[in-house]
Amino acid sequence: WWPITAGIALKDLQGVAAWRGVLATLATPILAVVVFVGAYIGLVVWILSAAGPGGFGAAAFAKMQGVTQGTNVRIAVNSYTRRTGSPPAHLLELVADGSLDTQYLTHPDTATLLSDIPAGDITLDAFILLPVDEQMAIANAAAEDFPDDIIAHRLGDLVYTHHGFNRTTDFNLWVLIISPDPDANPGATDIDGFIWVVLASGSVEELDFFDFNQALADQNALRATHDLAPLPHPSQVRHSAPARAKP
Q1: Contact 94, 231 (CB under 8 A)
Q2: How far is C-alpha 230 from the geometric centre of its chain's CA atoms?
Q3: What is the pLDDT, as a whole number, of residue 56?
Q4: 169 partner at 20 to 30 Å CA-CA among 43, 48, 144, 160?
Q5: Distance (Å, rounded) from C-alpha 6 to C-alpha 22?
Q6: Can you list the alpha helix ranges (DSSP code H) found in the chain?
Q7: DSSP characters for 203-233?
Q8: Distance spanning both ends of the chain, measured CA to CA
Q9: Among candidates 199, 157, 147, 192, which has minimal Cα distance to 178?
């Protein structure tokens, strides 16, 4: 009503036709609405195109979840290390002491369930129902069962590679890899085309599946400079077969 009233007033003051007066006062708000709607549509189109063929609900969501998962595990490892003075020997220790929620042991785009994850002689769905002292006993026993030359072990969709070195040895060393549990996801070696790694620096890197083998080779070259054994592909690290240093 105000633009129309102003348009009529403009007609009388300027001596122009009524339609020209109304149009002059309505032009700015109409143009503002058109620009806003156009910008919004453009933003939505850009987001969907950036997400790739799978759309925002697939590729982009998987990316976001991978980074979130890696970040939360990193925070849990750092928190545990500050409290105890050393990094966890087994990821189960993070679950037992409440540092890590079990939701971050699996990526939502894999078929891995808590009932698929071993925790001593039981599975993780039963493990989390036990009293804390029993959980810690199982976690400690699992760590003690590791061979002396272990370099990586798996818990769910996580492969923990923080064995045999301190975080400050080299901030570019990998301490964690997020990849699908091969026992619960037969044949899968990536999650929607991606594998995530957490560096000792704390940063989370998202690696395209096709670039991962080269990234792994580069990481093993870096590990060699610190007299650390090379890591296998994470798909080869199973709950029943932790990775060991090769003679």
Answers
A1: no
A2: 24
A3: 47
A4: 144
A5: 7
A6: 2-14, 18-51, 61-84, 92-96, 124-127, 132-144, 209-225
A7: -EEEEEHHHHHHHHHHHHHHHHHTT-PPP--
A8: 85
A9: 157
187-197 as b/e: b if 16+ CB within 10 A: ebebbbebbbb
With CA atoms as reference, report the closest residue to 177 among 66, 64, 58, 63: 66
- pLDDT, one tens digit per residue, over 124-141 is 999 999 999 999 999 999
pTM for this predicted structure: 0.76
Strands 243-244 and 194-199: unpaired
Cα atoms in the Cβ-side hemisphere of radius 13 Å centred on 12: 5
CB 197 within 8 A of CB 174: yes
> Taking the CA atoms of the chain, what radius of gyration do you get in angstroms?
28
Q: How far is CA 205 from CA 31, 62, 99, 192, 225, in A?
A: 43, 14, 22, 15, 21
Instruction: Give the pLDDT confidence of 152-192 residue by residue, as tens digits.
Output: 999 999 999 999 998 889 999 999 999 999 999 999 999 99
Contact in structure between 125 and 246 (CB atoms under 8 Å): no
**Per-residue pLDDT tens digits for 204-237:** 999 999 999 999 999 999 999 999 999 999 999 9
Count of other CB atoms within 10 angstroms of residue 206: 15
